[in-house]
Amino acid sequence: MLTVDNLSAGYGPVPALDDVSLTAGHGEITAVLGANGAGKTTLLRTISGLVRARSGTVSLDGRPLTGVSTEDLPALGLAHVPEGRGVLAELTVEENLRLGALGSRRKTTAADLRRIYDLFPVLAERGTGLAHVLSGGERQMLVIGRALLSRPKVLLLDEPSLGLAPKVVVQIFELLRGLVRDDGLTVVLVEQNARSALSIADHGVVLNLGKVVVRDDAATLAADDGLRHAYLGF
Ligand code: ATP
Predict the structure, then answer these.
(1) Which of 41, 137, 175, 234 minimizes the number of CB atoms within 10 Å of its CB?
(2) Which residues line ligand 1 at a C-beta cut-off of 6 Å?
(3) Residue 27 is part of a domain; what is its CATH number?
(4) Is 92 inside any structural domain?
(5) Is residue 12 part of a domain?
(6) Which atom of ligand 1 is nearest to the CA of 14?
(7) What is the sign of the dihedral through the CA atoms of 21, 24, 25 and 29?
(8) Can you say whether the dihedral through the CA atoms of 198, 118, 148, 161 is positive or negative?
(9) Confidence class for position 164, pLDDT limits 50, 70, 90
């Protein structure tokens, strides 16, 4: 279980995250929602140490992550897929995938790759081709697959649906649901697309101006008309 307690962070004088707490359970998807600038990306970046916490703590299964250097986090079970789908365009799909295991200091085995190719058959088809020919959806699959190669307990996913066709979003979200169900993965999903995110999440946390406005189970949040109109945009 990932536990975030009273986390605050910012950029220079700009406070971006103010006293945020959440727990993301084993085998659950927790959606982090809110408008542009609400602090969603900063929350993920602070959990993974890319932004320094001003106060508060983060722990994974009771083990403190605060103060652990970012490059040591994969070995402790935390993987972060930032927004933007960054891949090394001049490497092949498989070479990009193999990079995922580096952070966890594990060797990538043929079985590891097969598991990713079973999850994303399109990556198997494209394995020896250069990553720059991939579509947006395929790139998103590649960056998720790459993160899974470190065998994380917790996957932090930032805006995976951005700019993708609705059909592709459904495909990726169904896959996440399967990973959570079958492998007990814990997912913290940051999304502007609140409707889709709540349709697959177990729980949700809504941020506004860096603070938690409400947290509840996903179905309750999705059924709250006032909340949807005020903060979720659907
Ligand atoms: P978006 O969906 O637009 O990415 P968000 O909810 O993820 O929004 P953040 O990107 O975390 O929000 O931004 C939270 C606040 O921090 C905003 O006021 C933003 O302008 C500010 N901010 C984010 N990144 C930086 C930065 N590198 N330097 C200064 N301020 C920043």
Answers:
(1) 234
(2) 11, 14, 16, 34, 36-42, 192
(3) 3.40.50.300
(4) no
(5) yes
(6) 30
(7) positive
(8) negative
(9) very high
Could you tell which of 8, 20, 32, 36 is best to mutate to test the pocket of ligand 1, judged by most ligand atoms within 8 Å of the CB? 36
Q: How confident is the model at residue 192 (pLDDT cuts 50, 70, 90)?
A: very high
Expressed as residue numbers, the domain containing 43 is 2-86+152-232
Taking the centre of ligand 1 as the mean of its atom positions, its distance from the CA of residue 86, in whole angstroms, is 19
ipTM over 0.85: yes
CA distance 6 to 137: 35
How many domains does the chain divide into? 1
| Residue found under tokens 């649906």 | 161
CA of 184 to the centre of ligand 1 (A): 31
Considering the domain boundaries, does residue 116 fall inside one? no
Q: Return d(Cα 71, Cα 8) in angstroms, integer.
A: 21
The atom of ligand 1 lying closest to the CA of 12 is 29
In a domain, 136, yes or no: no
Amino acid at 160: P
